[in-house]
Amino acid sequence: MAENSGKPNYLVGVDLGGTKIRATVFSASLEARGTAKLSTKPQRGAEAVIERVARAVREAVDEADLTFKQVRGVGIGAPGTVDGKTGEVIFAPNLDWHDVPLKQLLEKHLDVPVFVENDCNAAALGVHVVELKSKPRNMLGIFVGTGIGGGLIVNGELYGGFGHAAGEIGHMVIDVGGPKCGCGRKGCLEALAGRGAIFRQILEAVQEGQKTVLTEMLGPDLKDMRSGDLRKALRRGDKLVEKIVEDAAFHLGVAVGSLANILNPEVIVLGGGVMEALADEMLSVIVETAKDYAMPGAMNDVEVIASALGDEAAATGGAVLARQLLK
Amino acid sequence: MAENSGKPNYLVGVDLGGTKIRATVFSASLEARGTAKLSTKPQRGAEAVIERVARAVREAVDEADLTFKQVRGVGIGAPGTVDGKTGEVIFAPNLDWHDVPLKQLLEKHLDVPVFVENDCNAAALGVHVVELKSKPRNMLGIFVGTGIGGGLIVNGELYGGFGHAAGEIGHMVIDVGGPKCGCGRKGCLEALAGRGAIFRQILEAVQEGQKTVLTEMLGPDLKDMRSGDLRKALRRGDKLVEKIVEDAAFHLGVAVGSLANILNPEVIVLGGGVMEALADEMLSVIVETAKDYAMPGAMNDVEVIASALGDEAAATGGAVLARQLLK
Predict the structure, then answer these.
(1) Which domain holds residue A207?
(2) Which of B145, B23, B37 is nearest to B73 (CA)?
(3) Fewer CB near the terminus (10 Å): N or C of chain B?
(4) What's the domain count of chain A?
(5) CA of B289 vs chain A CAs: smallest distance (Å)
């Protein structure tokens, strides 16, 4: 096989997040071969973060029992607005980056071609190319983590819009005048259904004296709460967590219904850390609500599924991107 | 010129609405040559309406001093869910139509090829091809009449989505739990900013005893109120109408901002009867609000404009459609 010939046939996909960097090596046929994770440490500045990305890439290659000479290219999903052509990160609030020439700087470190995409766009691409056997022409990916992001596949290709800013599903307004969002506005989907919103509502309820098993599990200030803790609380029959998670699922369902009305995609994929932990609890509420809010026809034969790629979606999409652009 | 040779070179575009049918004859280069209008009379049933469409088409041809032999094809925008391939109207609530084979029945009457599209999709196509000289790759058309509809141009082409149901902008939820919409749900954009919503709010305010010059103009029950009456009231400094129209413009702006976040189109065009009457009053509020609600980058260099095609947008798009599909 070609991939054993010593020619550079491997691709590395990177998910550059605000707290951690994940690099995964993929074969030419997009099978994962090895992964490395590092903390991001954005407070050290862009140059230091990019050095850490390079280190994660090399560690993943080592983990896969390969040498770096076998790597053909690297694709990165970055958390913010990206210029796909120049590979510049225009604005990434979680990293406090403005106009960072990520492609150029990382190519200096690695000496292979580097391609940059928004992380949720990359994740949508990864799901579309690697996970979905049906290869739908139109797909919407919604990724629910601390925040909520999205990626659109239109006519079989990643859709970036005019200024490569499309897909900001988390900042569609669902409840005008509603709870304040991290973006400064009010009533965005992210402020109603992201992990940040779910955690905030639980904390507020605990401060008001409501009971939850989470305080037994994590202490009264709920330090280090994770999505997995919510799953454990739900399995123990925690009514408070159930109500708040259902409410988030309801708002996600309203958004999915509205997006079906606007875009009528063939497949809607839900991913990200919250969905990975809570898909069993949330998906049925999301689908039921979406069908309630969709116009006749807008959800006919439309599949709504939870992605199985989990945390690997953006890195997988990075590798897909590199493979596409190296052709 | 070819169009004087007697060969069938003319196209007829039809806007089939719930209350009126408008047919316009266009030259091969899409210049309007003559128009005819007829009331729709949907209560007489689909067969009778289709006969009226055929009559409007023939009257428009006569109005343009042409003979029907010079007509190459007809394109119709219909108010509902349409199967573009079969030319069937699947569901049109304003006409009370279910599964009406419009293309087939109208071709029997006219004996020229007929093409069918959703009316707002047709209007978006008309604006894109005939009105916008810049030919943006991605455009969103929002048409504000009694209801609110939309049409998307993606990569230079009309985007229908998986089941040809995309573009239902009026039924994106902006205010979950908000006012009831004609579709049966709550908080849809249409329930906050369509002509129906504006008129309902004015009527409610009058019933509560609030003052407006509209009651002087139209009588206490505001019978036969039209968008143009609102413009007259605004020019006379009517505070109630000003507040309600501004509120509708605010909600349209929230939607435009959200849609910029989702789709980041190059151009956003606002059309329809309400915009035709009130663009001067509404557009600046819409644009300002949209910029407030858009993420950094999503509205950069994005044009938001009012269409100059007015009532002719859907008929124009019908002719464009026929020209495209007859090629």
Answers:
(1) 134-309
(2) B23
(3) C
(4) 2
(5) 11
